[in-house]
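Action item from last week, closing it out:
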Amino acid sequence: MASSLSAFLNWRPNTPFYYGWLVLGLSGAGAFVATAVAGVVLGGVQSFILEDTLWPRTSIGLASSCGVWLSGVLAPFAGRLADRYGPRWLMPIGVIVLGVSLVAIGGVHTAWQFFLAAVIGRAVSQPFLIGVVPRTMAVNFFNRRRNIALALTGIYRPISGALIIQAFALITLLADWRTAFRLLGFFSLFLAIPMIIIMRRRPEDIGLLPDGARPPAPGQSGQGSARGRTVPAEGEISWTSREAMRTKAFWMVSMVAFLNVTGSSGLGFSLVPYLHEFAGLTTPQAAGVLSVSTFLALSSLVWGQVAGKLTPRWCIVAAMAVSTLATLALLEVNSLAAAYAYGVFWGLFHSALEVLMYMVLADYFGRNSYGAIAGAMRPFEAGGLGLGQIVGPVVYDLTGSYTILILFSAAAQASGMVLMAVARRPERRAPLAAEAA
C-alpha cells in the first residue's frame, strides 16, 4: 500500500517540452478561479447580487477590502511555506478552501454570511493561487526566462477577471448568480487533483534544471542540493530572507510597491464614476475604457522582454514616469477619444508594474528564499490596495470632486519613481562560497 502511494506521488507526465511550462500553465487555472473573489470581479458582478438580495452596497466592498488585508497578513507565512514545500500541496489547499468558499457564497442568505465566505476565500486564494506561491514556483523553475514566467503569472489575473465577468453574466441570465458561484466552486475543487499530480517544488526534485538546461557532467560546477537547499549556479546570487530584509533595497522596493498600489487602486476604483460625472461619458463608455486598460495587462509579456535588456528597476522608473503624466492628463479628459487614449497609456505602462516589482526581487535576491522575501513585501501591497479603495470615496464625500484623488495618485506614482531610481542592487557582504560550504 505504501509503495503504491509512493509510486502515485512520484509519477508525473512526460512532456515534449520543458516541464516548467506545464506547472506554469496549471497555475493559470488556479489564478482563474481565485479571481472569482478578487475585487475587480466582485465589483463587476455586484449589481446581480445587490438587485437580488437588497444588501447594503458596502457589504461587498468591505468584504473585498478585508479579504485583501487578511491576505497580506497570511502572505509572509505562505512565502516561507512556498520555499519549504513548494506549490504541490499549497496550491491544492488553496483551491479546496476557495472551492468551499465559492460553493458557500452560492448558498448564503445574509450579508454577514457572504462577508465571511468571501473574506476567507480571498485571504487564502490570493497568496496561494495568484501571488506568492505561483511566483515562487516561476522563479524556481526558470532562470534565463524568469522575467517571462513572472510576466505570465501577472497577466493571469486580469485576463481571468475579464473572462469570469462575462461568464458570470451569461450564467446569471440562464440561471442566477448563486449558480455561477457554485459552478466556479466545483471547478476549483476539481483542480486539486491535477495540481497534486503535476505540481512540484523545484525542477531539481524531478532531475531537471531551471529552463530545462542540461545537467553538468560530474565534477563540473552547477546546481545541486546541499542540506535541502539548492546551491546557486556560477554567477547566481541567492540571499536568505533575513539577509534581504536587512538591506535598504528591500524596504525601498516595498515602499515603492505600497505607493504604486495606493495611488493606482484609488484611481482605478473611482475611474468609471469620474469619467461619467466629470468627463461626460456614459457609464458603458467609461466601463469600456476601464476594460481596455485592464486588457492591456498583456503588455507585461513585452515588459518581461524589455526588463531583460534594461533591468526591471529602470523599467519601473520609466513606467511610473509615464503613469504620473497620464494621471495628470486625466484632469483634462473631456471626450471619449481622450479617455481611451488615457486608458491605453495607463494599460500599457502601468499594468505591468506589479509584476516588475517581483522581477526586481528575483533580480536582487535570487531564488533560494524568494517566497519568504516576496511574502514579506505583500503586506505593503495589501495595505496600499485597501487604503487606495477607501481614499477615493472619502475624498469625494468631503469635496464633491475627484481632483484631490487624481493629484494624490500622481504624487504617489512620482514618489515611487524617485524612490525606485535610488533603490540600487544591494551588495552581498558574506561570500557566497562560505554559505555553500
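Closing note: The mean pLDDT is 85.
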